[in-house]
Specification:
By secondary structure, the chain is of the alpha/beta class. The chain has a single domain, classed as Purple Acid Phosphatase, chain A, domain 2 (4-Layer Sandwich), CATH 3.60.21.10. 20% of the residues lie in helices and 34% in strands. The strands form two sheets. Strands 3-2-1-9-10 form a five-stranded mixed sheet, covered by helices on one side. Strands 4-5-6-8-7 form a five-stranded mixed sheet, covered by helices on one side. Strand 1, helix 1 and strand 2 form a beta-alpha-beta unit.
């Protein structure tokens, strides 16, 4: 299973469309918020399943703040990250993943890509396709689930 991952598109869907096109054939798309409506648009454009949550810039959307799904036998916890203070620490996010029994955590909010593993939990942030932090480029991500395990990587636009 190939899962495309976007975050913090902030209504600038042309970069998000470019990112999905660069990913090629994917089985699903995860969008971690800021702007939830962008995820819905991408799903309709590319005709793929989309799993999305709302971020701190989505106060009027109908999206959930957190979402837990299972794909390819892996439990995936999806959140924007602002409710877990991810700009200063990953511990609350990691603890929540443990509580849920998640194998993978996908989040955004920091606008900085991150792929790390702690106690067999993959923590994955694709960065931002439109508003990267100074010193970073616009990025998006891919999670690949195979019989051998799960990997994640980020790519620049």
């Amino acid at each position: 299973m190939k899962i495309g991952v976007l975050s913090d598109t902030h209504g600038l869907t042309s970069a998000a469309v470019q990112a999905v096109n660069q990913l090629g054939a994917i089985d699903a798309l995860v969008h971690t918020g800021d702007h939830y409506s962008d995820a819905l648009l991408l799903g309709s454009l590319f005709k793929i399943p989309v799993y999305a949550v709302r971020g701190n810039c989505d106060p009027h959307s109908n999206g959930q703040e957190d979402l837990t799904i299972t794909i390819g036998g892996y439990k995936i916890f999806i959140t924007h990250g602002h409710l877990y203070q991810v700009k200063s620490t990953l511990q609350p996010l990691f603890y929540r993943a443990q509580e849920l029994g998640a194998n993978i955590v996908i989040f955004g909010h920091t606008h900085i890509p991150l792929v790390t593993s702690e106690n067999n939990i993959l923590l994955f942030n694709p960065g931002s396709t439109t508003r990267p932090q100074p010193g970073y480029k616009a990025t998006f991500g891919l999670i690949n689930i195979t019989p051998q395990g799960v990997t994640g990587e980020t790519f620049g636009l």
